[in-house]
Amino acid sequence: MLSHRFSGILRFGVAAFILSTVSCSLVLAQGPSFALPRPSAESSALVSIAPSPASSEHKFWDTKNRALFATVAALNVADFAVTRVNLHNGGRELNPVARVFGSSTPGLAANFAGETACVIGLGYLFHKTGHHKLERITSLLNIGASSAAVAYGFGHR
């Protein structure tokens, strides 16, 4: 019975991961890279490089980020609900950070809301510093972790 339950959890986690990566197939796309031209003997030592056009840079609240952040929020809500039910039925919190907040429902809700806000804030920080791959990978990592937590929570009811 345990192996049947574990295989169901594993299938759910793998399906959630594949769904999140396939639905965001271009999450690893980044702006064009500009190589410095090599100065020839006839050119001067000073080389000016034009800034990248604004059209190649995506906006922070583009369609992909909205979809990623909506998925992050939905999975954090699901994780909150499963964790809350498990804690009220005598389970224990395995996440040491969430364990601090797990004694009350408002504390647990604040933990998961803060987690969602931190993912969005970290994505914004990466966006502003030009790390567009990390901007999207942050959301994908949280989606994977929350999917695994929800699958584990369902398996240990």
Would you mind describing this structure in some detail?
The protein is an all-alpha fold and 157 residues long. It has a domain at 61-157. The protein is 65% helix and 0% strand. The chain has five helices and no strands. It starts with a helix and ends with a helix.
List keywords for this structure.
single chain, 5 helices, mainly alpha, 157 residues
Computed structural class = mainly alpha
Number of strands: 0
Radius of gyration: 21 Å
Helix content: 55-70%
Strand proportion, as a percent range, falls in under 5%
Can you summarize this structure?
The chain is 65% helix and 0% strand.
Draw up the topology in text.
Layout: H1 2-23, H2 63-88, H3 96-101, H4 105-128, H5 132-155
Helix pairs in contact: 1-5, 2-4, 2-5, 4-5
